Automatic annotation (TrEMBL):
TPR repeats: 102-135, 136-169, 170-203, 272-305, 415-448
UniProt superkingdom: Bacteria
Protein name as catalogued: Tetratricopeptide repeat protein
Gene3D superfamilies per UniProt: Tetratricopeptide repeat domain
UniProt KW keywords: Repeat, TPR repeat
Coiled-coil positions: none
Length: 464
């Protein structure tokens, strides 16, 4: 289903009589649970024609009306033809009651439906089907409103009732498929969509719904094949390329999925998520330059989005050893977000830069970055331990101890800092001083390898 637009409803007449028609232009209300692309069906000529026919009685499944009620309904229809909808509604409202025909309630519901007063139309239709349970037109319009309001659990029995009463047209089956899909009953959705396609093979929405139901059932080969057919007939629909891409991912054919994502980008329909997915595929295929390019395109598509996702991409790239690509991505993040980065994001970027510096053997750059982290957050235990390790490597034990002791004062990092401190003391043959640090580390965070190390240092200390 696609965009609502302006809903134009041509009003017909009841019981086969003829009268003037009224055309009502209604602006859709905000807050619909349906997406913009899912509402277009409501503005189609086919839908308007079907709704117009809902004013025409079907004698085998219609409540009877008295002569008095027929006169009143003709008066109502004259008001509708004169575009006096509110007056028509007031006249019907006066006629309603337990003894009144369900047709009066139905007509009132139709007027409210045209005016998009759905919450008032619902009880009118509900009263109509309570009075006359075989009232197919009322069940149909009730189902339409439930779907329009996103109340799919209630839409299902209403639409099913329409079919039970012989009203199984393509629209009813299609909406039934949509409702089943929305409540995650993909198998039932598939059956309903197949019926809709059988009755109306020209409508793309039913075929798209069928493809989605196949995908949700993880029947990826069938979803891919159906998408191929649909893409051949409408190659500019990005949602078809995206759905097929997701099916390719399910089939573990990531490079075919990547081709689809690139096609979506050529159509100008990429999203931040689709480009990030493309980047992830390229990373897994060791195509790091192409991955960085995809991540950058994702950032450029929505510069106002926070930097969390691209920073996560940087972390993945640096662990794969893609240092140049990581640096390129970090620089782009800074260019777009530097003025708005929070402390956590700033620290993450600095730590990434430190890892790159270590990997490239740039000790001075590593220290500079780590000191910047500590300046930004004096309680960053990870940076303090790394600075201690660096000081130890350059043979500055006093500075190393200074950093380790600062990290030891932080509960989260105490165990790791004490182990590093003890290792420094062991390298200086200060075994006795190292033992209490190792024992405390084991109390906080017991580890088998550290216990073996502790036992070894105890034996050495005793031997001395």
């Amino acid at each position: 289903m696609k965009e609502f637009g302006y809903l134009l409803l041509a009003v017909g007449f009841v019981a086969g009589c003829s009268s003037p028609q009224a055309t009502v232009s209604v602006q859709p209300k905000a807050g619909s649970p349906l997406s913009k692309s899912e509402l277009d069906l409501w503005n189609s000529a086919a839908f308007k024609k079907k709704f117009q026919r809902s004013y025409i009685a079907e004698t085998d499944i219609e409540p009877r009306v008295t002569t008095v009620e027929r006169d009143e309904l003709m008066a109502v229809q004259n008001l509708i033809g004169a575009d006096k909808m509110d007056e028509a509604a007031k006249l019907l409202d006066k006629s309603r009651g337990e003894a009144a025909s369900a047709t009066c309630d139905f007509m009132l519901g139709n007027i409210y439906f045209q005016q998009e007063r759905y919450e008032e139309a619902l009880p009118a239709y509900e009263t109509a089907v309570e009075k006359y349970p075989k009232f197919r037109r009322a069940w149909r319009n009730l189902g339409l409103i439930y779907v329009r309001n996103g109340d799919y659990e209630k839409a299902l029995p209403a639409l099913t009732k329409v079919i039970e009463l012989g009203g199984g047209d393509s629209l009813t089956y299609g909406l039934l498929g949509f409702a089943y899909s929305s409540v995650e009953n993909s198998m039932a959705a598939e059956s309903a969509y197949r019926q809709a396609v059988l009755l109306d093979p020209a409508t793309m929405d039913w075929k798209m719904g069928l493809a989605r139901s196949l995908f949700k059932q993880q029947r990826y080969p069938e979803a891919v094949a159906l998408c191929n057919s649909l893409i051949d007939s409408d190659p500019d629909r990005a949602d078809l390329w995206l759905l097929q891409a997701n099916a390719y991912v399910g089939l573990k054919q990531p490079l075919k999925a990547a081709e689809n994502y690139e096609m979506v980008d050529q159509l100008g329909k990429s999203t931040v998520d689709s480009l990030n997915m493309l980047g992830d595929i390229y990373v897994n295929e060791d195509l790091y330059e192409m991955a960085a390019n995809a991540y950058i395109r994702a950032m450029d598509l929505n510069p106002d989005r926070n930097a969390e996702r691209p920073i996560r991409a940087c972390k993945v790239l640096v662990t794969r050893g893609a240092l140049e690509e990581t640096k390129t991505l970090i620089q782009h993040i800074k260019d777009l977000h530097d003025a708005h980065l929070g402390q956590v994001d700033q620290k993450d970027l600095l730590k990434l830069q430190a890892r790159i510096a270590v990997a490239e053997g740039q000790a001075d750059e590593e220290v500079r970055v780590l000191e910047e982290i500590v300046e930004l957050d004096p309680l960053d235990g990870e940076a303090l331990i790394l600075l201690g390790q660096h000081a130890s490597r350059v043979n500055d034990p006093d500075k190393a101890v200074f950093y380790y002791e600062r990290a030891e004062s932080l509960e989260k990092y105490e165990a790791d800092a004490k182990i590093r401190h003890a290792q420094l003391l062991v390298s200086q043959s200060k075994y006795t001083e190292a033992l209490p640090l190792l024992r405390r580390a084991q109390e906080i965070k017991p580890r088998d390898d550290i216990q073996k190390y502790l036992d070894q240092i105890e034996r050495v200390a005793k031997a001395r």
